[in-house]
Amino acid sequence: MAPTPEDLRRTMAQRARSAIAACAARREFAIAQLRAACGELVRAGVATDAWLIGSAAWGGFGERSDVDVVVRALDPSRVTETADRLAAVAGVAVDLLRFEELAPSFRDRVERDGARLA
Predict the structure, then answer these.
(1) Distance set, CA 34 to CA 11, 39, 51, 104 (Å)
(2) Total domain count for the chain?
């Protein structure tokens, strides 16, 4: 028996709901892991602050999204190492930005609208 148009609609709707739920779970896992890892960075004196920005913080996070993190007082020589470490624990690619290298207006937005990680 061939599926009906209603069967197909239900199947597609269920797939969409499953994809949305999977993205939400991936986002929540990544944020929890980043909070812990950024907290360690601050406690170790590697950075003084960390914020989540971009789609993970402001909406639109999808299955191909990376995570954008801004850190303050991170030595420039440690950016790649730190980004790799954060990506490993978060299970998602991390775009790591140094607060000091951002334009003043963007620094203001990070401090105002970013989700504090540490």
Answers:
(1) 34, 8, 10, 25
(2) 1
